[in-house]
UniProtKB/TrEMBL annotation:
Organism encoding this protein: Mycena venus
Tree of life domain: Eukaryota
Domain Peptidase S33 tripeptidyl aminopeptidase-like C-terminal: 464-554
Transmembrane segments: 26-45
GO molecular function annotation: hydrolase activity
Protein family according to the UniProt entry: Belongs to the peptidase S33 family.
Pfam families on file: Abhydrolase_4
Protein name per Swiss-Prot or TrEMBL: Peptidase S33 tripeptidyl aminopeptidase-like C-terminal domain-containing protein
Alphabetical UniProt keywords: Hydrolase, Membrane, Transmembrane, Transmembrane helix
Length: 600
């Protein structure tokens, strides 16, 4: 691993020869980066932001800069300068990366998008297709929240992505927790094994927190969700006029931003719709190691639906089953036998993007992530079937390249946000030990999800905030019962494996008549992972001014051949989602699916 550039290079003691060589390489790298930046500036390349080094040229707060080239055809993109700390202008500025599609009809306002994570880039969501889906009445504005992607300061703790990859490779951070067997969760060997792995987990989280503190210092203070809400208010002032309503559409972690927004600034809330609800009370008041028991309450139901649908589809469409109509318990038992084998001996995977191994924890964690995306269930079945037959490459490749991740530092960006939102430990007695972590994983398996209770961390890498020392200028922790002029829309699936309807019901209960809960009876993380025409129309209608009745349910819309298409069929018929509807609905549904596709 190479050394980390620090601010006091000059004061450092004389270097040993290999160390000097590394520094020379580092300067060489800086030179190449500078040349490339100049080239980028010259050519108008939009993938880079040129940092402002000189305080004499400090950017003016509120300045909006538009670039000439954007990621998505038909959008304008650029950045806006905001105060880094909304309560202390002396701290300097941050630059928020933005992308916009302007209304072509009389404009209702700006609609801010957030695609979750935290850590996902929001700029690609602003597409002409999405704008058209909402009737071209909104300025659609996607942005990268604090610390993320092209917004600066950016979370970047390690010297290189290779260093970070090397740090995580083949550790519990990359492979998740292996449970010896779920057959008897009272067996003390289960908890012992998880406590041992938790020791490694804690050490790595601690190391990574210390590296971030050293390389980023005070910059880490300005990444929290409350700060992002202030940014949206600031941008609404600039784009729509002082005190304008803030309109918002977010999924998954975006539901946290939505709940923060309406409860921090209720008088500013306009049209706010959130999909795939994360419980904001737990988020803001309980330590992350307790979250899996809250998040996984619908996953067993989803898993059973996956297995039953696979069996119904039959072995050609879903190779995990041996005959059409096989009882789901038989598939489940075959998979458990495979997990038990892997728990004793991981599988060698010599020929993947990076050679390595597959542990039982990694495969359970991957299956959990696949359950979030019904349009990938066919891929899941083929990758798992290959692993059962001895070829782990498809699964390991999926693990190494989960897709849709804006930053190779995704996990660190996520910590930078969540660790400012959660309550800081009051004292060292508050810092969970490996025994606490192991006990909680066993409790989650026993009480909530035997199959996945120890594996949420693979897709949702939380925890370790106890070692994060940065504190936000503002932390919001409720109350969550604001009164709104226009009720917010809350969307929940009945089988969302990680953001259960239980959380939608909870915030609907807190917000009362200032909210409407609408329910899609189906599987997947966020309704947009498998949108029914019914829900697509409810959401569209909400932004057009029609409030649905609270408790409206959209019935299941797809059959087993939709979830598991025949591999011999030409093309992917799900590209049209099987709707026999007008093309604008298809376009909007696709834009949404693309927006909320990622984990988190
Ligand atoms: C599970 O393990 C516990 C503790 O070792 C033991 O008392 C119990 O009999 C086991 N249960 C089964 C069904 O094997
Ligand atoms: C909102 O919640 C707070 C804290 O739980 C409570 O004190 C307050 O009475 C509630 N307000 C309303 C209008 O229900
Ligand atoms: C809204 O509908 C849900 C689901 O039917 C129900 O549980 C909840 O009590 C209703 N909420 C309100 C505020 O009426
Ligand atoms: C599933 O739905 C599609 C589209 O509605 C239909 O063409 C197909 O026959 C159905 N398949 C089964 C097995 O019911």
């Amino acid at each position: 691993m190479s050394s980390y550039p620090t601010k006091d290079l000059g004061a450092a003691p004389p270097l040993a020869a290999p160390e000097r060589q590394k520094r020379i390489n580092y300067y060489r790298l800086v030179f190449v980066a500078l040349v490339f930046s100049l080239f980028a500036l010259h050519s108008g390349f939009s993938g880079f932001r040129i940092p402002c080094f000189s305080p004499r040229h400090a950017p003016k707060i509120g300045t909006v800069t538009w670039l000439t080239e954007c990621d998505v055809k038909g959008q304008e993109c650029g950045s806006i300068v905001v105060p880094k700390d909304h309560f202390d202008p002396s701290v300097g500025t941050a630059s928020i990366s933005i992308a916009r599609v302007k209304a072509t009809r009389p404009k209702k306002g700006t609609l801010f998008l957030n695609p979750g994570g935290p850590g996902n880039s929001g700029t690609s969501g602003a597409s002409p297709g999405f704008a058209a889906w909402l009737g071209n009445e909104w300025d659609i504005l996607g942005f990268d929240p604090r610390g993320i992607h092209r917004t600066t300061p950016q979370v970047k703790c390690f010297a290189s992505t290779e260093d970070y990859d090397f740090f995580k490779a083949n550790t519990v951070l990359e492979q998740s927790f292996t449970v010896p067997s779920i057959a008897n969760l009272s067996d003390p060997a289960v908890e012992e094994a998880l406590v041992a792995q938790s020791r490694e987990f804690i050490a790595l989280k601690q190391a990574q927190a210390q590296i971030c503190a050293k390389t980023m210092g005070d910059e880490l203070r300005y990444m929290g969700s409350a700060t992002v809400v202030r940014d949206m208010a600031f941008m609404a002032d600039v784009f729509d006029g002082e005190g304008a309503k803030i309109n918002f559409f977010g999924g998954s972690y975006g539901s946290i931003l939505g709940m923060y927004l309406v409860n921090m600034l209720p008088e500013r809330a306009g049209f706010v719709a959130i999909d795939g609800i994360v419980d904001p009370v737990a988020w803001a008041t309980e330590p992350p190691y307790t979250w899996p028991a809250n998040w996984l309450t619908s996953i067993e139901k989803t898993y059973r639906f996956f297995l039953e649908t696979c069996a119904e589809a039959g072995p050609i469409r879903c190779p995990l089953t041996q005959y059409a109509g096989e009882p789901y318990e038989e598939l489940e038992q075959r998979l458990e036998a495979f997990f038990d084998e892997l728990a004793i001996a991981p599988m060698a995977v010599p020929f993947a993007k990076r050679p390595g191994l597959l542990t039982s924890g990694a495969v359970r964690g991957l299956l959990l992530m696949y359950l979030e995306q019904p349009t990938q269930w066919s891929d899941a079945a083929h990758a798992l079937a290959a692993a059962l037959a001895g070829d782990g490459a498809p699964l390991l490749n999926k693990l190494l390249t989960p897709g849709h991740v804006a930053s190779p530092y995704h996990d660190l960006v996520r910590s930078a946000v969540t660790c400012l939102d959660v309550p800081p430990p009051a004292s060292h007695h508050d810092i969970p030990t490996a025994e606490d972590l192991g006990r909680e994983l066993v409790r989650t398996m026993r009480e909530v999800s035997p199959h996945f209770g120890a594996n949420l961390d693979l897709g949702e890498p939380d925890g370790g905030c106890e070692y994060w020392t940065a504190r936000s200028p503002e932390r919001f922790a409720g109350p969550w019962n604001a009164t709104l002029e226009w009720p917010m829309l809350i969307v929940s699936n009945t089988m969302d494996p990680i953001t259960p309807i239980q959380s939608g019901l909870r915030i609907n209960g807190l917000m009362g008549d200032s909210s409407r809960l609408v329910i899609q009876d189906g599987p997947g993380h966020c309704y947009s992972s498998a949108p029914t025409p019914c829900m697509v129309k409810l959401v569209q209608g909400y932004f057009a001014g029609t409030l649905p009745a609270n408790g409206t349910v959209c019935s299941p819309a797809f059959n087993s051949s939709w979830y598991f298409p025949d591999p011999a069929e030409e093309g992917d018929f799900r590209a049209t989602l099987g709707f026999e509807e007008e093309s604008s609905i298809l376009e909007g549904a696709r834009a949404l699916g693309g927006l909320f596709r990622r984990r988190g």
